[in-house]
Amino acid sequence: MKPKILVVYYTQTGQLRQILDSILSPLADKAEIDFCPVEPVKPFPFPWNALHFFDTMPETVVQLPCAIKPLNSSVKEKNYDLVILGYQPWFLNPSQPTTALLQSEFAGLLNNKNVVTVVGCRNMWLHAQEKVKEYLSAAKANLVGNIVLTDSSPNLISLLTVIRWSFKGQKEASGLLPAAGVQDADIAAASRFGHIIFKHLSENSLGSLQTDLLNQQAVQLRPGLVILEQRGIKNFRYWAKFIREKGGPGAPERAGRVLLFKNLLLVGIFILSPISALTAKIKQFIKRKSLLQDVEYFKQVQFEKNRI
Q1: HEC string for 98-125
Q2: Average of per-residue pLDDT across 38-47
Q3: Burial of 271 from C-beta contacts in 10 A (0-12 / 13-18 / 19+)
Q4: Helix (H) or strand (E) run with residue 164 in it
Q5: Distance between CA atoms of 8 and 162, rounded to whole angstroms?
Q6: DSSP 3-state assignment of 12?
Q7: Residue 8 contacts residue 36 (beta carbons within 8 Å)
Q8: Predicted confidence band at 281 (pLDDT cuts at 50, 70, 90)?
Q9: Alpha carbons 185 and 205: distance in angstroms, whole number
Q10: Confidence (pLDDT) at 285
Q11: For residue range 52-106, what is the model confidence (pLDDT) as tens digits?
């Protein structure tokens, strides 16, 4: 009997669906695969309006989800051998539709289910994954694997291309800038993970899946990212609280604070990033042993509270 796999995901641009299709391509004729997209009741725009984009930060950071449509009823009727959850981070947290999914009745279906998470993003995903781990732990799901695909362009280049993509809708290369997002070659190469997943499904050995995924570079993580995310999430929490003091999403009273956050964030990214990167490298040297321990933890699927 073929194993049954449920793939639940949210994507604005379609890139995450491409990643999932590539990963699962080796299983196309070996498993029963059901794809179930998460759909907000009120879709988020793409490309984004800048004010709307930054206005989504506070609720994303404090885990207040958007409303989503009910999942297909057939999801409740099948006993799946594996659930694959695909998502993107927003502001160092799971996207609002992903948070909504994990706070919905769907979480009840994950009890004792084996889950693999698939993350597609620019480069920062640690805190978002910890939040997803927390939701899965509360649902008594078994997180058995994690695959992370990021934009492999240099940091500033990837930032410029994702801004072009997010606010102009242009993914394609232009001028001196390459195409935005996860590179096509990396997406195509992700099919190697499908072979590993099927092997462990067939052998009923999902408990050791992550070890084999890591051997194939399913998660690549530099120690400096740990430091940058630790700093970033503290700032986002402060600004989320500060902005929400003036009202909920779209409230005119909070627009000024949203714009202030946007401007300071851009200054921090483009002007202060080199200084921040330098201090992060110094901290890496001073706390090398503990950072390497953190890196090993974040590559794994176990969950410990307050690691970031």
Answers
A1: HHHHHHCCHHHHCCCCEEEEEEEECCCC
A2: 96
A3: exposed
A4: helix 155-168
A5: 24
A6: coil
A7: yes
A8: low
A9: 29
A10: 66
A11: 999 999 999 999 999 999 998 888 889 999 999 999 999 999 999 999 999 999 9
